[in-house]
Specification:
It is built from 7 helices and 11 strands. It is of the alpha/beta class. Helix 1 crosses helix 5 and helix 2 packs across helix 4.
């Protein structure tokens, strides 16, 4: 399968941290990474393309952009997608990302996802869990008071990135936050960013996320709808309980 990663800007990376947020439950990773990119004013440096992706082009600032884009600076890389990733592309794209991050001497990759919770509406502050790829990342989570996701399934590229990272000696963590299954969840994205702030000193203000929850939900509802369709398709094919995503 042909997956292309096209660099559009040259950056002299200094062992960067990488954060990945593909659409899944509650669009937690997508919303969180988009917010980080906006607050830090990160510039697009690359994009990923494949003939298997839908024939859609994003227009931003009057210019056509790829569906899967990479932003960054010397210390931080952020990867985001404007489309849910089809099951057939999850592993190939994750492999391409890990390969590229290894080539850029990334010191750690953190992927962000959502965990469907039936009582999310009653939860004021959703809980964030961590899945470490090895003992060192386990210690990092423990040191920062992050509870572990002990058992279950991770479906889609956010989980696969961590597994492939582990198999290629790239330190990796998956952060998964309690979230709505049917609705975009900026509150869960904010809770996850607060964990990232504590772990890596990012100092990202999340008040804007909380203040604009309804606006964000409206802007992302179409992506949420398409993501739900993909998640249900994967659930049906793999017979995986949605609670473990």
């Amino acid at each position: 399968m042909n997956i292309e990663l096209i660099e559009t800007s040259e950056v002299n990376f200094e062992n960067p941290l990488a954060i990945v947020g593909f659409p899944d439950v509650g669009l937690v990773g997508t919303i969180a990474v988009s917010h980080i990119i906006e607050i830090l004013n990160l510039q697009e440096i690359a994009h990923i393309d494949s003939e298997e992706l839908p024939p859609i082009v994003v227009v931003k600032e009057r210019r056509p952009r790829g569906l899967i884009r990479i932003y960054g600076n010397e210390k931080l890389i952020c990867i985001i997608s404007e489309t849910p990733i089809p099951p057939s592309l999850a592993k190939p794209i994750a492999k391409k990302i890990v390969e590229w991050l290894k080539n850029k001497n990334a010191n750690l990759v953190v992927s962000i996802g959502g965990l469907a919770h039936p009582e999310r509406m009653e939860i004021e502050k959703p809980k964030v869990y961590g899945v470490p790829a090895d003992s060192k990342t386990e210690e990092l989570l423990e040191k920062n008071g992050v509870s572990f996701f002990e058992e279950g399934f991770l479906v889609g590229p956010n989980g696969v990135v961590v597994f492939i990272g582990k198999n290629n000696n790239l330190p990796a963590i998956h952060l998964v936050c309690e979230a709505y299954f049917q609705f975009p969840d900026p509150g869960a994205a904010a809770a996850t960013i607060e964990v990232l702030n504590k772990m890596f000193g990012l100092n990202i203000n999340v008040e804007k996320l909380r203040e604009k929850e309804e606006e964000i939900r409206l802007k992302t509802r179409e992506l949420m709808k398409r993501t739900q369709e993909i998640l249900k398709e994967m659930q049906k094919k793999e017979e995986v309980p949605v609670m473990y995503r």
